[in-house]
Design brief:
The structure holds two protein chains of two kinds. By secondary structure, chain A is mostly helical. Chain A has a single domain (5-198), classed as Alpha Horseshoe (Serine Threonine Protein Phosphatase 5, Tetratricopeptide repeat). Chain A has nine helices and no strands. Chain B is of the alpha/beta class. In chain B, α1 links the parallel β1 and β2. The termini of chain B are far apart. Classes of the chains: A mainly alpha, B alpha/beta. The interface between A and B is medium-sized, with 21 and 17 residues.
Chain lengths: 203, 127
């Protein structure tokens, strides 16, 4: 699939729009088990990305993704800035200008591994990796966009009963059980927004 | 030129206090910078501020960073990766308690020790 400038811009706008619509919900989730800064951090980051949308979209896909990641690192703050930033920067390094499905799945897996290394974490610890891992698997299995969005949403829900082992929530121990992980929720929102744009275009 | 020291805490007060202790116990012979708090002025750490601190404490002998909780380490690692290539390999993040580590690393640096030695002395605190 050709991810041209117009589509790149559309993807940026869709990600920013879902963050705008849900940042207060992310704040509430983070207030329950974290330090409460995830919603404002995501909003700050994607507001900055949206403000730079023209410049980011006019660059080829790899450079645009790296630029988007750097923007998030420099504006989001908190622990999630480097995690989201690393994801997009690594995805930009892994992809060429017109990745096919196989290349995209491989790039996604590499970006996910980089997030795990950055956070010294792995799936099963109640983090955004618990969304990225099943999505990575679904991508490799050639799941449709709608199917991937569903996998992401279900994976975020599945963090509710999990015990947090990384991040600020880990200090809560058993009290982290019963709350959805805010990073998992935000990852499912971003992935859902991207899938909604791509649905019907990917063939 | 002596190795520089950067202190990265979630709290600006902790960072400033640790830097005060370094200044009093080691003196001014070591480039020193600190940062604490997030973009909004709350508790947290920020990559751009860490980059500024590294710049402020820059020494051609390198820079040793001392951190407190996990996010400070994650953000410091991110900041190091965003440095220009020629600087990236001359910055290390010590695995040491922030206050004791900053003082002992600065003391070692003030004697002209190379970056590897400064880091090793701080890391011994956690051994």
């Amino acid at each position: 699939m050709q991810i041209d400038q117009a589509l790149r811009r559309q993807l940026i706008e869709a990600m920013a729009a879902t963050v705008e619509a849900h940042w207060q919900e992310l704040t509430e989730l983070d207030q329950a088990i974290g330090d409460g800064d995830h919603g404002t951090g995501m909003k700050r980051g994607f507001d900055a990305v949206l403000a730079d949308a023209d410049k980011l979209a006019e660059q080829p896909l790899p450079a645009g993704l790296r630029g988007l990641g750097q923007k998030l690192v420099m504006t989001m703050g908190g622990a999630s800035g480097p995690l989201y930033g690393t994801f997009f920067m690594e995805l930009g390094k892994a992809l060429d200008e017109n990745p096919d499905r196989t290349a995209f799945a491989a790039g996604f897996a590499r970006a996910m591994a980089a997030v795990g290394a950055r956070g010294k974490s792995e799936p099963g610890q109640k983090t955004l990796l618990d969304v990225l891992a099943p999505v990575s698997k679904a991508l490799a299995e050639n799941e449709t966009s709608a199917g991937i969005a569903r996998v992401a949403a279900e994976a975020a829900e599945a963090t509710v009963p999990m015990l947090a082992l990384r991040g600020r929530a880990a200090f809560l121990g058993p009290r982290s059980v019963g709350h959805m992980d805010p990073g998992a929720r935000s990852a499912s929102l971003i992935i859902g927004a991207v899938c909604a744009v791509l649905e019907g275009k990917s063939g | 030129m002596n190795v520089g020291i950067v202190i990265v805490s979630h709290s600006s007060k902790v960072a400033e206090g640790a830097a005060d202790m370094v200044r009093q116990m080691v003196g001014d012979s070591v480039p020193l910078a600190y940062t604490g708090g997030d973009e909004a002025g709350g508790l947290g750490t920020s990559v751009p501020r860490i980059l500024e601190a590294i710049d402020a404490a820059w020494s051609d002998a390198g820079v040793a960073i001392l951190v407190d909780l996990g996010g400070a380490e994650t953000n410091s690692e991110m900041a190091v990766e965003m440095l220009p290539p020629e600087r990236r390999d001359r910055v290390v993040i010590c695995n040491a308690p922030i206050v004791e580590g900053a003082v002992i690393a600065a003391a070692e640096a003030s004697g002209g020790s190379p970056l590897e030695t400064v880091r090793a002395v701080a890391d011994e605190l956690s051994a």
